[in-house]
Every structure is written in structure tokens, then in C-alpha cells.
Write a structure and sequence with these properties.
The complex is a heterodimer of chains A (192) and B (417). Chain A has 192 residues and is an alpha/beta fold. Chain A is built from six helices and six strands, in the order βαββββαβαααα. Chain A starts with a strand and ends with a helix. Chain B has a seven-stranded mixed sheet, with helices on both faces. Chain B has a six-stranded mixed sheet with strand order 9-11-10-13-14-15, sandwiched between helices. In chain B, strands 1-8 form a two-stranded antiparallel sheet. The chains are: A alpha/beta (192), B alpha/beta (417). At the A-B interface, α1 and β2 of A face β1, β8 and α10 of B.
């Protein structure tokens, strides 16, 4: 089972992001479960959503306490929420930011004992460019596909098309594609 | 057809496949997405021959449902929490009049303190209203139970509540197999009422009944529920034949045949319980579980059979009978009349508190050592409770309890789980 926890703020599409991720996994023939954190979801308040992906039926209903990957939609949460709670060594972290992880002060987590596989992605900028609104979730899913390899880009794009009306979907698809390319290059640079 | 969708949406589609003729709706979290989905289907012309009535309150929703059902229409509504309490009088009337209304409960806590999250306090408050109550473990079962519920309700002329955990199921995206219209039509014939308000053949419904006949009318509603004990498994078996999967029934056992410790629970919690059972079995524990699907009628005989060889039973309840302990436990203990085994009540998941594998594992290990109290509150924060009790013993004017506790706990937005 692969477990993902998405952190963001109310209005950024945290719940929709988890739902689309579950649809993408379903389209690949796998079992998936997505659900919100059941917190008070006000605009701007810290919110969470969860996604589990497995090859068999998922019975577990607890919140994702031990994630394999984190998606952080808002970097200002880094100093507010215990984001990395439960993440094991070598866990994936994808942060929506124009800054590098050293600039964010997270270099120690990458080089230290945790050896987190951390990457940053300017998802809000990609959303503004393609969608015209600061909704980073589709771009982050494209980045997530490239960073983790857990899910294919084609499935992510299909899930985006299932979620949104055609015109908006294509804009989000463009954001997700560019994010995928950026994250792929970043990953190749690390691997090299 | 397999699809990945939200639980509420899956239920809305399943209800639409049942060809309801009247839907009364008043929104309340976490049930809202269901009636919204149905409203969209009616408006888009996907659900035909159905009148969708927006009402001004839950009391009106059930009252309109009573009128529609008495006029011979297949009738559906949904609610949660305070909404169910507000319609309480009409809920009893629907059962007393013998009207086969189907209602979804998106299970949610009852205030005060106000809380929008999941537990079973709402549907449990109506457990003796004369409705059949079925609890869904998964979104697949939730949608399947609605198809069975209309059939069950109409065969018995008794209303049925399908209870699904608010947020945990209603807002969860997971895989469901949506049946075809043809399959549902084959299982659920058109509604033929036993009683109908028809101007061309007038009758009155709802007579004043005095002491001379009230007991008999009540006995017959009890008798109806006892018949349901036979009909529910029959319908589940027929459902399996038509749709090819297990859903519903009275209870479901999991690795309980040789178990010394058996956990009993209702609803979506069973999935997490089964995960813990598997993990503890790996390390040699003889533990199993039983999921109760039909809470009304309460399946005393099959439960007795499932539990009788165990050494102890742990009943996990998402509802508190204040001043007593458990509600489900009462029924479970009644089913074990004359059988000597240790019984424990555990109150868990109130107001949406997460029920985790870690907490359940500790709990079940304590149970195996028979180190549990008769009534245990899972993950109770003893520090907060004792601080508040101490404060109350020192000061007269302590102010409201909930606010004092929130101040002590501080911000929760930063916590996970």
C-alpha cells in the first residue's frame, strides 16, 4: 500500500487533489481511497486530505498517519503544522514553492538521517500561467507522478479531465504536463 | 460498472436506480451531497417520474415523505444528526403508520457541543422508533443496501434507515460497482402499496387508537421486525444471485470461528478492526470480529451463535448511553443470556475522533489479558478530564465546560490524526 497525505489551505483544492489521485490510480486498475481530514475547512485554514493506493481492497479507515509521500500545497504551513509526522526515512516530499529546499531551510532533512526525497515545484506559478488562478493541485499531481513514479502522467491527466468541465480541464492538464516535465528534469539532475 | 466515486454520489445513483417517485430534501452535513446529487439528476432529466420537493425543515421532509408514501409513491429522504432529531415525531409516525419510506442517515454526532463529525448518536436515538436500521461497512455496501432497503421496506410495509458513517463513507472516494438499471429492475419490482390515499376509494389513515387496540398495533410492528430477521438474509442471498456480491444480511463474521476474543462493531469501523485482527493473528492471537449490519431488528440468535464459543467479547460503540455505557452492548449481552463470558464495552470515535490501528491493538491486547474496565473510553485524554474536574472542585463559577477544555488543548489545526 502507498499512502499520500496532502497538506494545504482551505480553497487550494486539497480534497480535490486527493480525489483526483484516487481516480488516477483507479484508472490504472488499482484500488484507491481518498478522503478529507474532517477538519474545519475554512478558506485559508490548514487542511489535509489523504489517499491510499493498493493492489487489493483497502479496508483501513484511519487517517494517513504513516505516509509514504507528502504533498505540501502551501509552504507557509512548514512552520505551522507538524507536516513530516510519520514520514519514514527516504519518504517523498513535494512542496509547492519557487525556492529550493536549502532556501526553505530543509536541506538537513535531505542530507541527514531521514534522507527525505524532497523536491520543490512552482505549482502556483504554473497554475497562474495555465489556469489563471492560484490553484496548484493539478500541477502538483503532475509533479507527483514524475517525482514518485507511483502513478502515470496519462492517468493523472485522465483524472483531471474527469474532475473538471472540458475548458477548465485542459488548462489544468497543461499545468500538470509542464509540472511533470519540470519534476522529471529535477529528478534526472538528482539521479545524475 | 466499476467506478471511482464519492460515497454520497454512489448512494445518489443507487437511489435513482430504485426509481423513487418522491424525494423530499433538506440539507444537513454530512448527508447533503446525496440529495444534491439526486436533485441534479431530477433537474437534468436523468431521473424521470420523480418529484423532487425542497422543504423548509427536516420535520417537513419526513411529513411530506409520509404524505407521499401514503399516496402510494416510492419515497426517499436523507438526513443527519440534529436533522433526525428535528423530524423525530414524524419518524415515529412513519413507522406507526406502516409506510415503507427509505431514509439515508449520514451518521453524525449530536450537540451540544456542536460537532459535524461522525458517530452513531443520531440513528441510535431513533433505534426504537419502529424503523429497520441497516449499517454499511463500505460505500459499495451503502449503495447495495439502498437497493435492498426499498425491497425490504415494501415487502414488510415498514420504513428502513440505511446508516452510513458521515465523512468516513459519505465523503470518501473509493471503487464501487454500480449496477445496471436492468439488474435493479429485476430485483426491485414497482411499488404496490398495501394502503393508499385514493380519492376514488377513500380511506382514512392515522386513526386515534385507544387502550383497546394500541398494544395490538404495537405488537404487530414488533412482529414485522421479527419477520425481517428472516427476510433480511433472504434478500441478501437473492441480491448475491442477481448482483454477484455479498452485501447486507444480519451480521458478518471475520476469522471468529476459533476466536477467544471477538470484537463486535457497526459500520465502517469494521474495516480497520479487520486489519488489526489480521495483524494480531499473525502474532498468534486468537481474535476475530463480527460486524452487525442489521441493528433493528437486532439479530439475537445469529449473534449468540457467532459469539458463544468465545472467552470474551469487546463491543466497540460509536455512541454513548450517558449514565450507562453502551447501547449495542445491551443487545449483545442479551444475546448471550446464560452464557458465561467476559463482556467489555468500549466507547470510541465520538464526534469524529480517529480510531487508529495503534489504539485498537493496545485495546485488544488489554482485553486478551482481561485488563479492561467494564466501560472504556478509547484514547480518553485523562489529563484534560482530571484538570477540568479539579478546576470544578475549586471554583463555583467555572463557565462552560467545552470552552474551558478547548482553551486547555489549544489549537488543533496543527495536529494530525
Amino acid at each position: 500500500m502507498f499512502q499520500i497525505r496532502i497538506h494545504g489551505r482551505g480553497g487550494q483544492g486539497v480534497v480535490s487533489g486527493a480525489e483526483m489521485l484516487s481516480v488516477a490510480a483507479f484508472l490504472e486498475g488499482r484500488y484507491a481511497q481518498a478522503f478529507p481530514s474532517f477538519g474545519s475547512e475554512r478558506m485559508g485554514a490548514p487542511v489535509m486530505a489523504f489517499c491510499r493506493i493498493d493492489d487489493k481492497e483497502i479496508r483501513l479507515r484511519e487517517p494517513v498517519l504513516d505516509p509514504d509521500a507528502l504533498i505540501v500545497q502551501d509552504q507557509t504551513l512548514l512552520h505551522q503544522v507538524d507536516l513530516f509526522s510519520g514520514l519514514p526515512a527516504r519518504g517523498y516530499i513535494l512542496i509547492n514553492s519557487t525556492q529550493s529546499f536549502d532556501e526553505l531551510g530543509l536541506g538537513g532533512f535531505v542530507r541527514g538521517v531521514q534522507q527525505y526525497r524532497l523536491s520543490t515545484l512552482p505549482a502556483t506559478e504554473l497554475a497562474l500561467k495555465h489556469v489563471g488562478r492560484a490553484v496548484p493541485n493539478a500541477a502538483l499531481l503532475g509533479g507527483f507522478a514524475a517525482t514518485t513514479g507511483v502513478i502515470g502522467l496519462a492517468s493523472v491527466l485522465a483524472a483531471i479531465r474527469e474532475k473538471f468541465p472540458a475548458a477548465i480541464a485542459e488548462k489544468n492538464v497543461a499545468a500538470a504536463r509542464e509540472a511533470f516535465d519540470i519534476a522529471t528534469h529535477a529528478r534526472e539532475a538528482i539521479d545524475a | 460498472m466499476l467506478k471511482q466515486t464519492e460515497g454520497s454520489h454512489a448512494v445518489a445513483e443507487a437511489v435513482a436506480l430504485c426509481r423513487p417517485q418522491v424525494i423530499c430534501a433538506y440539507p444537513i452535513t454530512p448527508q447533503t451531497h446525496i440529495v444534491e446529487g439526486l436533485g441534479e439528476m431530477v433537474k437534468a432529466g436523468e431521473l424521470v417520474n420523480c418529484e423532487y420537493i425542497n422543504v423548509e425543515s427536516e420535520f417537513a421532509a419526513m411529513s411530506v415523505a409520509i404524505g407521499a408514501s401514503a399516496a402510494g409513491a416510492r419515497t426517499y429522504t436523507a438526513t443527519s444528526s440534529q436533522g433526525l432529531l428535528f423530524m423525530a415525531e414524524a419518524v415515529y409516525n412513519a413507522a406507526g403508520l406502516g409506510l415503507p419510506i427509505v431514509m439515508t442517515i449520514g451518521n453524525r454526532a449530536i450537540g451540544a457541543p456542536i460537532n459535524i463529525w461522525n458517530d452513531h448518536s443520531d440513528s441510535m436515538s431513533m433505534r426504537d422508533a419502529g424503523w429497520i436500521q441497516l449499517y454499511a461497512e463500505t460505500n459499495q455496501e451503502a449503495l447495495d443496501l439502498h437497493i435492498q432497503a426499498f425491497r425490504l421496506a415494501e415487502e414488510l410495509v415498514c420504513p428502513v434507515m440505511v446508516c452510513m458513517d458521515g465523512f468516513i463513507l459519505t465523503h470518501a472516494y473509493e471503487r464501487v460497482d454500480m449496477p445496471t438499471q436492468r439488474q435493479v429492475d429485476a430485483f426491485l419490482p414497482p411499488y404496490v402499496p398495501r394502503q393508499v390515499l385514493d380519492p376514488s376509494d377513500p380511506v382514512s389513515i392515522g386513526a386515534l387508537v385507544g387502550p383497546e387496540a394500541f398494544t395490538e398495533v404495537r405488537y404487530l410492528s414488533h412482529h414485522k421486525q421479527l419477520r425481517a430477521l428472516g427476510l433480511i438474509p433472504e434478500l441478501a442471498a437473492e441480491f448475491k444471485k442477481t448482483f454477484g456480491r455479498e452485501s447486507g444480511g444480519l451480521i458478518r463474521t471475520y476469522r471468529s470461528e476459533d476466536a477467544e476474543t471477538i470484537v463486535v462493531a457497526l459500520g465502517s469501523l469494521n474495516g480497520t478492526v479487520q486489519e488489526v485482527v489480521d495483524a494480531m493473528r499473525e502474532s498468534g492471537s486468537r481474535i476475530g470480529s463480527v460486524s452487525i449490519c442489521s441493528f433493528r431488528p437486532f439479530p439475537l440468535a445469529v449473534l449468540r451463535e457467532a459469539l458463544r464459543s468465545a472467552k470474551r467479547v469487546v463491543v466497540l460503540e460509536k455512541c454513548l448511553a450517558v449514565g450507562l455505557g453502551g447501547i449495542v452492548s445491551d443487545g449483545v449481552r442479551k444475546s448471550l443470556s446464560g452464557i458465561q463470558l467476559n463482556g467489555y464495552t468500549v466507547i470510541a470515535g465520538l464526534g469524529g475522533r480517529a480510531i487508529t490501528r495503534a489504539s485498537l491493538t493496545r485495546l485488544f491486547e488489554d482485553a486478551e489479558r482481561d485488563e479492561l474496565e467494564q466501560v472504556t473510553f478509547l484514547d480518553l485524554n485523562a489529563d484534560v478530564v482530571s484538570h477540568e474536574l479539579e478546576r470544578e472542585s475549586r471554583t463555583r463559577r467555572t463557565g462552560p465546560t467545552a470552552e474551558a477544555i478547548l482553551r486547555r488543548i489549544g489549537t488543533v489545526a496543527s495536529q494530525i490524526g
